[in-house]
Amino acid sequence: MAVNSPLIIALDYPSLDAALCMADQLDPAQCRVKVGKELFTRSGPAVLEALHGRGFEVFLDLKFHDIPNTLAGAVQAAAEQGVWMVNVHASGGRRMMEAAVERLQSHRLSTHLIAVTVLTSLSAEELHETGVSASPGEQVEHLARLARQSGLHGVVCSAQESAAIRQSCGDDFLKVTPGIRPAFATVDDQQRIMTPAAAMQAGSTHLVVGRPVTQAEDPMAALAAIVAELS
Ligand SMILES: O=c1ccn([C@@H]2O[C@H](COP(=O)(O)O)[C@@H](O)[C@H]2O)c(=O)[nH]1
């Protein structure tokens, strides 16, 4: 299905039923959906089958991070389940990322492979606490370049870094940005945030939106407000 929207709705729910209840209110021609660690750990591949059966393109957000051989196997397993996009941590290094790219290519799997740079929930102070002396912006850009050199299709970053990555890695390199917060939403545990319209202006190619829609009193009204902001 051709999806003519940058929106990816994060189905962060504790059960398959709850996730499908939200999915059934969404139009697979108008947005993609994201399955993360909680939902996948609870429901397993059944959630992918159910969402694919409803016509959705699925971003499997399991943020793989392991030795090259193990990680390549996990990426292959995800791609063979037909997901549109899967991700790994760029901090796993060049050899790990290249192993995943090679595995997809050798099996002719066309799933988009992207790398998480610096989690959008991390502030500069928290990043420094992990032993990284660079600022979030510097570290994101460093890891984005590494991901691009390793053959990946793009990165997960905050929209605050999209413009710099567009400059260094180009328009075609995907900038998938969580931490999207419309003016009406609460910040929650995110740190590096941006509104939907500002994120698109900055060069994000995809906007990941979870709680501003899924925890809203009226999720469909919240989604409509975001769509209106983007049009
Ligand atoms: O750096 C990252 C990487 C992934 N995420 C995921 O995106 C969504 C954001 O949800 P909100 O409710 O809109 O905050 C969530 O599934 C995260 O696991 C991220 O936020 N930051």
From TrEMBL:
Active site positions, chain numbering: D61 (for ompdecase activity), K63 (proton donor), K63 (for ompdecase activity), D66 (for ompdecase activity)
Transmembrane segments: none
Gene3D superfamilies found in the cross-reference section: Aldolase class I
Pathway connected to this protein: Pyrimidine metabolism; UMP biosynthesis via de novo pathway; UMP from orotate: step 2/2
Gene Ontology cellular-component annotations: cytosol
Signal peptide span: none
Binding site for substrate: 12, 34, 61-70, 120, 181, 190, 210-211
Pfam families found in the cross-reference section: OMPdecase (PF00215)
Keywords carried by this UniProt record: Decarboxylase, Lyase, Pyrimidine biosynthesis
Superkingdom of the organism of origin: Bacteria
SUPFAM superfamilies: Ribulose-phoshate binding barrel
Coiled coil: none
EC numbers, comma separated: 4.1.1.23
Protein family (similarity comment): Belongs to the OMP decarboxylase family. Type 1 subfamily.
Function description: Catalyzes the decarboxylation of orotidine 5'-monophosphate (OMP) to uridine 5'-monophosphate (UMP).
PANTHER family in the record: OROTIDINE 5'-PHOSPHATE DECARBOXYLASE (PTHR32119:SF2)
Protein name: Orotidine 5'-phosphate decarboxylase
Organism: Vreelandella azerica
Gene field: pyrF
